[in-house]
């Protein structure tokens, strides 16, 4: 009896592994196809200066547009792109697309906007990373481009990445520490890397109104950031009351559905040109 059970649970296991593997392979070929067929889009989420209520920049967030499945969110394909080294060509596409967007906004009412992009560990580690960045930023104002790094990206290969990160800064780009407070938070990143922006993770903002501990953490993070002369960005702001509290705590910038979800380029431009205040 126990033998039969053992056998069944074994085949159950292999079936599940098979399914998982199949799904990964399926997404891998979707990525390869999308790389060939121009199947990616950058969407832009506004970043708002809390005191003026004005949109001062945006974060580029990638979407895969599959002919059958429609829009696929990054959490579903970025990890698989990372596992298959497809993140390198994908990252190069992102860099090109983002910088050509900045170029298009020159000499328009959107010319003052900053644009952030997210960079994965394997991209940063890649030997050609700095030269691709250098090439892409040739004819844009370097300080308009911000590179977002997470703590998990940094812990991957900190020793090797550190000189590269300093080089990015020397090139005049701005640096953001993304998802601060999650994962492997270490104050040594703040000590060793010349960040300009610190982004407080959405998970702290979610309960900031109900949970005094979250409010306290956000206050502490903001105080540290201000002491170090960093600009604080709150992620995932959905409610006016959250925004009011963040303003009281001294936060500078926010992103979140309260203003807008990430938008296709034309919609983002329309939103910006409507000149509304989002505070
Ligand atoms: P992230 O960089 O921390 O981006 C913020 C995520 O929070 C985005 O999800 C955004 O749509 C979502 N968000 C913003 N405001 C709100 C809100 O008010 N409510 C809720 N519920 N969500 C909000 P998204 O676009 O699905 O991206 C998820 C993650 O995927 C990103 O987290 C980033 O780590 C990664 N990612 C996205 N685009 C890229 C990319 O171009 N390259 C790389 N390497 N990673 C990317
Ligand atoms: Mg980000
Ligand atoms: Mg984030
Ligand atoms: Mg995140």
Automatic annotation (TrEMBL):
Q: Where is the EAL domain?
A: 24-276
Q: Mind telling me what this protein is named?
A: EAL domain-containing protein
Boundaries of the shown chain within the full protein: 387 to 665 of 665
């Amino acid at each position: 009896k126990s033998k039969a059970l053992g056998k069944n649970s074994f085949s159950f296991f292999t079936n599940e592994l098979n399914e998982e593997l199949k799904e990964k392979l399926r997404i891998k070929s979707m990525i390869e196809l999308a790389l060939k067929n121009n199947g990616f889009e950058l969407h832009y989420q506004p970043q708002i200066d809390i005191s003026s209520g004005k949109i001062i920049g945006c974060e580029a967030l990638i979407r895969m547009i599959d002919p059958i499945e429609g829009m696929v969110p990054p959490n579903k394909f970025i990890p698989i792109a990372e596992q298959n080294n497809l993140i390198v060509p994908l990252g190069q596409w992102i860099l090109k697309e983002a910088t050509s967007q900045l170029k298009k906004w020159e000499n328009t009412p959107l010319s003052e906007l900053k644009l952030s992009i997210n960079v994965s560990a394997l991209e940063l580690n890649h030997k050609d990373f700095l030269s691709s960045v250098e090439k892409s930023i040739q004819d844009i104002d370097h300080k308009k481009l911000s590179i977002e790094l997470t703590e998990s990206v940094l812990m991957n290969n900190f020793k090797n990445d550190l000189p590269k990160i300093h080089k990015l800064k020397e090139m005049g780009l701005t640096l953001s520490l993304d998802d601060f407070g999650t994962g492997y938070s270490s104050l040594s990143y703040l000590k060793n890397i010349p960040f300009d922006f610190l982004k407080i993770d959405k998970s702290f903002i979610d309960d900031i109104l109900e949970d005094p501990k979250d409010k306290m953490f956000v206050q502490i993070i903001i105080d540290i950031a201000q002491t170090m002369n960093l600009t604080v960005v709150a992620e995932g702001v959905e409610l006016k009351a959250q925004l009011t509290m963040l303003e009281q705590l001294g936060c500078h910038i926010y992103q979140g559905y309260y203003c807008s979800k990430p938008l296709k380029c034309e919609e983002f431009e329309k939103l910006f040109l409507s000149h509304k205040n989002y505070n």
